[in-house]
Amino acid sequence: MHPNQRDLEAGIQTDFTNRLSYGGYLHLDRLLSAQAPLSNPPQHDEMLFIMQHQVSELWMKLLIHELRAGIRYVQADNLSPCFKILARAKLIQQQLFNMWAVLETMTPSEYAEFRPALGQSSGFQSYQYRTLEFLLGNKHKGQAEVFRYDPALYAAIQADLSAPSLWDEFLRHLHRQGLPVPAECLERDFSEPYVANAGVVAVLKTIYTDPHNHWAAYEMAEKLVDVEEAFQLWRFRHMKTVERVIGFKQGTGGSSGVAFLKRALDLTFFPELIQVRSELG
User: Fold this and answer.
1) Count of CB atoms within 10 A of residue 213's CB?
2) Where is 151: in which H helix or E strand?
3) What is the dihedral of CA 215, 95, 124, 119, to 10 degrees?
4) Are 191 and 139 within 8 A, CB to CB?
5) Residue among 144, 138, 128 at smallest CA distance from 96
6) Tens of pLDDT along 71-82?
7) Greatest CA separation for the chain
8) Coil, strand, or helix at residue 41?
9) Alpha-carbon span 157 to 144, nearest angstrom
10) How many helices (H) does the chain have, and how many strands (E)?
11) Helical spans, DSSP H, in the chain
């Protein structure tokens, strides 16, 4: 036998006729045939661009799966399982953040070779990204309009727009635990943007001042800070990648590009969790 070769172990299965295989379980035939560059003549870096965004959408699908489960646990006043869910969410977000480094290996000249093939398509039209923002609380009715072309998609995004976010559900949980969350934060038009409330800051100050008597809420609050910070870092890395590749050109979907992405950095999901830090100590 060649010194750089090993025997095939006797128990390893090799015949997958009419049996479930690795590729079959993962539907790799569909997954690996979903990359269809449009540039003509073909441009090498378009494959990187397509796969970057497809893999991002896969990670976002998992992140949505986790956050929906987290919301259900909060609704049931069972915070403990959320700690693992939100810890996993943070690690998924780190994957999304680190992926930008691969796309940054593409130069402006390389991107310009296939950019016309994108037409008006843009990340702004990502249904899953918008779902994430709505689940976390960044509500904006106008942002749902880009999905009106697909009635089923539009109905689903409208449902998430109108439903309480993770933060809304956490505040309702705190109210059920006897903490004085202001009434206007509990029952409102959840399709409208959340507005920071001094009464919520006071509730959080109670939790942070006496964490041992509010340990689950304290732990949940810190996990939420992790998720928001990771989301902001992702937004920032996206903006810097776009800046590096196209400068200050208009985005393919009609946005102002980098300027539009910079404004997103001012958006917050859980504003009182930052504000309360100024009240402590």
Assistant:
1) 10
2) helix 151-162
3) -170
4) yes
5) 128
6) 999 999 999 999
7) 76
8) coil
9) 7
10) 12, 0
11) 22-26, 28-31, 46-75, 80-103, 108-112, 127-136, 151-162, 166-176, 198-209, 215-246, 258-264, 271-275
Tokens found for residue 56:
């991002």
CA nearest neighbour of 108 among 250, 247, 266: 247
Structure tokens at 201: 């800051």
Q: How far is it, in rounded angstroms, from Cα 94 to Cα 56?
A: 11
Rounded to an integer, what distance in angstroms lies between the CA atom of residue 43 and that of residue 111?
Answer: 9
Q: Where residue 250 falls among pLDDT bands split at 50, 70, 90?
A: confident
User: For residue 73, what are its two tokens?
Assistant: 């646990």
Angle formed at CA 272 by CA 271 and CA 275, multiple of 5 degrees: 95
Predicted TM-score of the model (pTM): 0.92
Q: How many residues does the chain have?
A: 281
Number of alpha carbons in the 13 Å side-chain half-sphere of residue 233: 16
| 114 neighbors 245 (Cβ within 8 angstroms) | no
Q: Locate 80 and state its tokens.
A: 């403990």
Q: Which residues contact 25 (CB under 8 A, 6 or more apart)?
A: none
Based on its alpha-carbon atoms, the radius of gyration of the chain, rounded to whole angstroms, reads: 23
Q: How far is CA 62 from CA 50, 67, 183, 241, in A?
A: 19, 9, 33, 23
